[in-house]
UniProtKB/TrEMBL annotation:
Name assigned to this protein: Haloacid dehalogenase
NCBIfam families (alphabetical): HAD-SF-IA-v3
Originating species: Actinocatenispora thailandica
Superkingdom classification of source: Bacteria
Alphabetized CDD domains for the sequence: HAD_BPGM-like
Length: 220
């Protein structure tokens, strides 16, 4: 294994098709607890940490309750959906396993620790992923690079020697801000802004393209 480099995966939109679940659950909570959804809400919350999107629901969208109460409700409902198994994107588990045979692998996500644990246990990847960091733990949501820097530290690889796989505008910005080599894997449901996508060094449209892309980045 090459321990001089690392691969860091985003979770939502890259390994799991969960962005729609988060959106549906938050919309439901807004409707149920007296808030008002806005056209820009979905995009605004992409990449936010749990404390950030919970405050957004309360302070911007008018949901009743404290941010902590609202976050608990949303995460409980998300965990209920995960109980039947993570909504895996095609080839996700194999892509992680293949990358881990090459270099240390981590996850850097806006999902809370409870959802990360559900993903790792539901896929059997707990022993494969060396570090899994939530932006909640890192102290700032994407596009702040904190979660990517923490994930790189977790696998003991300098951030500049890591490759990040991201789908959203804020996620791409976070990885770029961490000075990582960035592979964009655009989510068709919530595509990144074209100008941000253009800044990625590489683009894949399926996780089956990851291994050959890593071969290009790190030739044998």
């Amino acid at each position: 294994m090459d321990t001089r480099h690392g691969v860091i995966f985003d979770l939502d939109g890259v390994l799991v098709d969960s962005e729609q679940w988060w959106d549906e659950i938050r919309r439901g909570v807004v409707a149920e607890f007296g808030g008002r959804w806005t056209d820009e809400a979905t995009t605004a919350m992409l990449g936010m940490s749990t404390p950030e999107w919970a405050r957004y629901l309360v302070e911007t969208l008018g949901v009743r309750g404290t941010p902590e109460q609202v976050a608990g409700t949303v995460i409980d409902r998300m965990a209920d959906r995960y109980a039947a198994g993570p909504p895996l994107l095609p080839h996700a588990v194999q892509a992680v396993r293949d990358a881990a045979r090459r270099v240390p692998v981590a996850i850097a996500t806006s999902s809370p620790p409870r959802i990360i644990e559900a993903f790792l246990s539901g896929t059997g990847l707990a022993g494969t992923v060396r570090a899994a960091v939530s932006s909640e733990q890192a102290g700032a949501g994407k596009p702040d690079p904190a979660v990517y820097l923490a994930a790189a530290a977790g696998i003991d690889v300098p951030a500049g020697d890591c490759v990040a796989i991201e789908d959203s505008s804020n996620g791409l910005r976070a990885a770029l801000n961490a000075r990582m080599t960035v592979i964009a894997a655009p989510n068709p449901h919530f595509p990144p802004a074209p100008d941000v996508l253009a800044r990625a060094g590489y683009r894949i449209d399926s996780l089956t393209e990851l291994a050959p892309t890593l071969d290009r980045i790190w030739p044998a």
